[in-house]
Design a protein that fits this description.
The protein is mainly alpha-helical. The chain has 2 domains: about 40 residues; about 120 residues. It contains 8 helices and no strands. The longest helix has about 50 residues. It is rod-shaped and about 85 Å long.
Length: about 190
């Protein structure tokens, strides 16, 4: 078997063929090279295998990026749940307790949301919930939580829904700093 040397023209033809969704006729028209010649070059230089490798690499990169986005989304949702609990506790500290039920409901709602976020994360890792439905489900749970709580707690939940990512991260960092300071004060 004759070993063929791939030139720049062959590589250019491969790129045109690959960009044309592996269509010899379409790339033939673009390059003004007969489709039969392109098929021969494709066989000589392993265009299908090369294209498959490129597709596999692209898919792996996309999968890693999607995984990072899901992890970031989970982190934001966990921070939102922690913020809801903290706001309930802060409200308790700042106001005279009108009713114990309202105060307890804010804390319990935050804990419930935190648990549900953790359950969704576990289900997501096990492949039971897609990334899009995970976000939609948590959004829906936050909205339902706002409807089930008293007016003061609903405002807190709706504020969390409206907060941007930077605001949540800043609040979470502030909460962590306060927790650490409180822990250092106990020692």
């Amino acid at each position: 078997m004759v070993r063929h040397r791939e030139t720049g023209r062959h590589r250019e033809a491969f790129e045109a063929w690959y960009a044309a969704d592996r269509d010899y006729r379409q790339s033939s028209e673009k390059l003004s090279i007969p489709a039969g010649t392109l098929r021969t070059w494709g066989a000589w230089f392993g265009w299908r295998e090369r294209a498959d490798r490129r597709d596999g690499e692209s898919q792996a990169i996309a999968d890693r990026a999607a995984s990072r986005r899901r992890a970031a989304t989970l982190q934001r949702h966990q921070e939102a749940a922690a913020l809801l609990i903290t706001r309930g506790v802060e409200w308790l500290e700042a106001h005279a307790i009108t009713t114990a039920a309202e105060a307890i409901r804010a804390i319990a709602s935050g804990i419930k949301l935190e648990r549900e976020a953790e359950e969704l994360a576990t289900a997501r890792l096990q492949g039971e919930v897609s990334g899009a439905s995970y976000s939609t489900t948590l959004q829906r749970q936050l909205e339902q939580l706002a409807l089930r709580t008293g007016p003061k707690e609903a405002v807190v939940v709706l504020e969390i829904l409206a907060e941007d990512e930077a605001g949540l991260r800043k609040r979470a960092a502030g909460l962590e700093a306060r927790r650490q300071a409180a822990g250092a004060g106990r020692n």
